[in-house]
UniProtKB/TrEMBL annotation:
<dbReference type="GO" id="GO:0051287">
    <property type="term" value="F:NAD binding"/>
</dbReference>
<keyword id="KW-0460">Magnesium</keyword>
<dbReference type="Pfam" id="PF00180">
    <property type="entry name" value="Iso_dh"/>
</dbReference>
<comment type="similarity">
    <text>Belongs to the isocitrate and isopropylmalate dehydrogenases family.</text>
</comment>
<dbReference type="InterPro" id="IPR019818">
    <property type="entry name" value="IsoCit/isopropylmalate_DH_CS"/>
</dbReference>
<dbReference type="GO" id="GO:0006102">
    <property type="term" value="P:isocitrate metabolic process"/>
</dbReference>
<dbReference type="GO" id="GO:0047046">
    <property type="term" value="F:homoisocitrate dehydrogenase activity"/>
</dbReference>
<dbReference type="InterPro" id="IPR024084">
    <property type="entry name" value="IsoPropMal-DH-like_dom"/>
</dbReference>
<dbReference type="GO" id="GO:0005739">
    <property type="term" value="C:mitochondrion"/>
</dbReference>
<dbReference type="GO" id="GO:0009085">
    <property type="term" value="P:lysine biosynthetic process"/>
</dbReference>
<dbReference type="GO" id="GO:0004449">
    <property type="term" value="F:isocitrate dehydrogenase (NAD+) activity"/>
</dbReference>
<protein>
    <submittedName>
        <fullName>Homoisocitrate dehydrogenase</fullName>
    </submittedName>
</protein>
<dbReference type="GO" id="GO:0006099">
    <property type="term" value="P:tricarboxylic acid cycle"/>
</dbReference>
<dbReference type="GO" id="GO:0000287">
    <property type="term" value="F:magnesium ion binding"/>
</dbReference>
<feature type="domain" description="Isopropylmalate dehydrogenase-like">
    <location>
        <begin position="11"/>
        <end position="365"/>
    </location>
</feature>
Length: 369
């Protein structure tokens, strides 16, 4: 993950992209600005990308956006992207391209329960670590026509030991750190509901895809088995279909889950149902030298411009970004303010059964900072 080096100044690329990204990213910026001197002086650099940018200028990810991120920015925030459900010549997802350009090989998605009034749910405090650069998302597809005129569509799935090993290492590092944080909390007298040792669950389907998923499974297992560093981290496996079932039935049994790109995408979006809404779940796209916050929801064109989008996923993503850069106290302040608003229950957007606006929720969080 990006190095947690203390800085005297921060330069953040801000890419709202499409739909409600243009509403929730400004909310996250307001929260970051409200931290004042608790974080380094921060400059926000507006950048373009997305489906709307493609329709304006013929390119979903402008070269200038990539250049500025690589040469001038310390980190970035991404809003949301609209992608057509059918093939459009010349278009490809800018978020997928950004992950490749910046080598953001991990998508890290914490999914944690907060007691929201009127919405009881299972206890959940897990992190899904999704490999971000390969699997079916390498976008190698073709369509062929058979002699009888029928068509066959083919997609190439790529799994490498290199990508699998480094995502496995990140998962074990996250589990190790979570275990240390829980132990520190216990020693300070706090109640920690997770009582066991930290755990990594490897998600795969190698009983069917024995070569590709087999390589992913073996590569991740080798990380745990190749060093004494992770002796205190338990390792288990789940077939992806069993993972989905057990995640909804017993979310409390999972700590850190690591998965190839497609499975990780599906289970992390599904896990959002455990905590009430996609509008609550943050993520970061992380590499060794750069990190980009990204709420996991989509562009939601049906509510675009109505000021009712939930800004919390974007705000929590900003907190996650700060934490990854080493500003853990500031990140904790943001999360505590968000939790207070959710527990109070007065300011909830429609996705959570409330009537508050994007602005209402943002203002309530700012007041608690």
């Amino acid at each position: 993950m990006a190095s947690a080096v203390k800085r005297t100044a921060l330069k953040l690329g801000m890419i709202p992209a499409d739909g409600i990204g243009k509403e929730v990213l400004p909310a996250a910026q307001r929260v970051l600005e409200a931290l004042g001197s608790a974080i380094p002086k921060t400059t926000f650099v507006p950048l373009q990308a997305g489906w709307e940018e493609f329709n304006r200028n013929g390119k979903a990810l402008p070269d200038e956006t990539v250049r500025v991120l690589k040469e001038e920015c310390d980190a970035a925030m991404f809003g949301s992207v609209s992608s057509p459900s059918h093939k459009v010549e010349g278009y490809s997802s800018p978020i997928v391209a950004l992950r490749k350009h910046l080598d953001l090989y991990a998508n890290v998605r914490p999914v944690s329960s907060v007691p929201i009034p009127g919405q009881p749910g299972p206890t959940c405090d897990m992190v899904i670590v999704r490999e971000n650069t390969e699997c079916l998302y390498i976008k190698k597809e073709e369509i062929k026509t058979n002699a009888d005129g029928s068509k066959i569509a083919l997609a190439t799935r790529q799994i490498t030991s290199h990508a699998s090993s480094r995502i496995g290492k990140m998962a074990f590092e996250i589990a190790l750190r979570r275990g240390q944080e829980r132990e520190a909390a216990r020693n300070s007298g706090k109640d920690v509901w997770w009582k066991g040792e930290p755990k990594v669950t490897i998600v795969h389907k190698s009983n069917v895809l024995s070569i590709t998923d087999g390589l992913f499974r073996e590569s991740v297992r080798a990380i745990r088995e190749g060093t004494d560093k992770y002796n205190g981290v338990k390792m288990e496996e789940q077939l992806v279909d069993s993972m989905v079932y057990r995640m909804f039935r017993e979310p409390e049994i999972f700590d850190v889950a690591v998965a190839p790109n497609l499975y990780g995408d599906i289970i992390s979006d599904g896990a959002a149902a455990l905590v009430g809404s996609l509008g609550l779940v943050p993520s970061i796209n992380a590499g060794d030298d750069f990190v980009m916050g990204e709420p996991v929801h989509g562009s939601a064109p049906d509510i675009e411009g109505k000021n009712i989008a939930n800004p919390i996923a974007s705000i929590r993503s900003a907190a996650l970004l700060l934490s990854s850069l080493g500003y853990t106290d500031s990140a904790a302040k943001i999360n505590a303010a968000v939790d207070a608003v959710l527990v109070e229950g007065q300011y909830l957007t429609p996705d959570l059964g409330g009537k508050a606006s994007t602005t209402d929720v943002t203002e309530a969080i700012l007041k608690r900072l």
